[in-house]
Design goal:
Layout: E1 3-5, H1 11-14, E2 19-24, H2 25-35, H3 49-65, E3 69-73, H4 81-85, H5 98-113, E4 118-119, H6 126-139, E5 143-148, E6 162-169, E7 173-177, H7 179-186, H8 193-200, E8 201-202, E9 207-208, H9 215-225, H10 228-233, H11 240-248, H12 250-260, E10 279-281, H13 282-291, H14 295-304, E11 317-319, E12 322-325, H15 329-342, E13 346-353, E14 356-365, E15 370-375, H16 382-392, E16 399-401, H17 404-412, E17 421-424, H18 425-432, H19 441-449, E18 451-453, H20 457-460, H21 473-499
Parallel strand pairs: 2-3, 2-5, 3-4, 5-6, 11-18, 12-15, 13-16, 16-17
Antiparallel strand pairs: 1-10, 6-7, 8-9, 13-14, 14-15
Amino acid sequence: METFGRSWVGRSRVGRVAKLMLLDGNSLTYRAFFALPTDMATASGQVTNAAFGFTSMLINMIRDHEPDGIMVAFDRPEPTFRHEMIPTYKAQREAAPDILRQQMGLVREIVDALHIPMAELVGFEADDVLATLATRARDNGDDVMVVTGDRDTYQLVEDPHVRVLYNKRGVSDYALYDEAGILDRTGVTPKLYPQYAALRGDNSDNLPGVPGVGEKTASRLINKYGGLDGIFANVDEQTPKLRENLIEHEARARLNLDAMVLVRDAPVDLDIAGLRWDDVDADEVSRLFEFLEFRSLYDRLNDVLKGRLPTLEATGGVLEAELTTATSPPEAVQLLEMLRSRREPVAIAPSWVDERLDGLAFVTTAEDGEVAYIGHELFADNDVARALSSLFDDGGVPINTHHAKPVIRALSRFGVDLTRLDIDTELAAYLVDPADNRYGLDALLLRYLQLELATDSAAAAGQLDFEGDAVAPAQVAAREALGVDALAPAMAEMMQARDRKSTRLNSSHTDISRMPSSA
């Protein structure tokens, strides 16, 4: 087993405050399951949407917050002390779907391969484990971020050491709350949150509140009277209907409070000093991610780990183009008319010089790597412009490219409208995996097809062309056109697979701000 570590030094060793991240494994996996379509599966049929979403969230949080230590808490299947206290506690919740329960084991395997400590406790909930460890870390002077989709953890927030990273929905919509954030979100301080929630109730836990008491009324009463004791001591000051409801349901509110206060001294056998991301089982991560077909996640994790995971071999080969360049308007027109007569999708790629369109490469015979190129100087010819328009307009053929928007803008300057755009592989990649943040053609080819574009040493290294042998822009465009030709059908197939459940991947929760610039 190959492992590697990253240095982690606790506060007690050098006086530095450690930054710890405590995750609610069940909550985040549940959110991921309902955010992503259930037709996300391996070739063998293993559904992976929840495991994929959880892993994607985990990688993003490690990347964005760079914690020194991480742990994941899970719920146990047995009843907790809250079920004994209130038999109807969470009774309204339906049993988790089989395809979600099956993935909980996968999530645990992933966490274990990453050597992230896990904790669970019979008779308690994951929230109690998180509360206990957050309190220990606070007392140790460490900084803590509790990551969850459960609002009960709002009560743990305490400046300057404890914050909550709350999963609002989906896999990328989060809010990071300090004390001011909780006050702004709920109208009460974190310390008073359980009393506020006890009055308002919590439908997700099947804990009804006092009738007629919503969020605004609850926060007003709590802030005015300081809590349930003060409210019920001054119940005669309320309007007749509210007074009646408070008196009738006082026992309910007080029982809610007993259930909503998280346990901060649960017998969790886990040392705060052990909550570190110390080493990773690189071989097991490689095996597991390959089995789950998490190629994109593997690459993102490897970026976080500074390239310390073993490279997955690019078994698909290298794409190199046999380039033919049109040297006259008649040659260009003949090429364009030939492509239009085929009525088949055509992959194109631009070349750019000083941010100006220098020409277009067109795949003519993908099997043989044959690509034709037309330089921009021919676009101004009327016959060439008409042939381009005939290929690209509504009566033409489907056109595939990567990062289409600048191509469309550049062609419009020659009076050519690219209206038959079929697949923009960059946009398609976003729709397939909106949780990723890398949509370059090279990365997508390697991720999904294990293909690479041919490179030239001088060009790849960004060296000056002293010998005159740097790769020409037309050759680069030709290779990219071949890449688009190979990638477009794969992206179309993946989008169609996801469209069986939804028109777009998680369309109701799409994070527009993260879409690539061509979207």
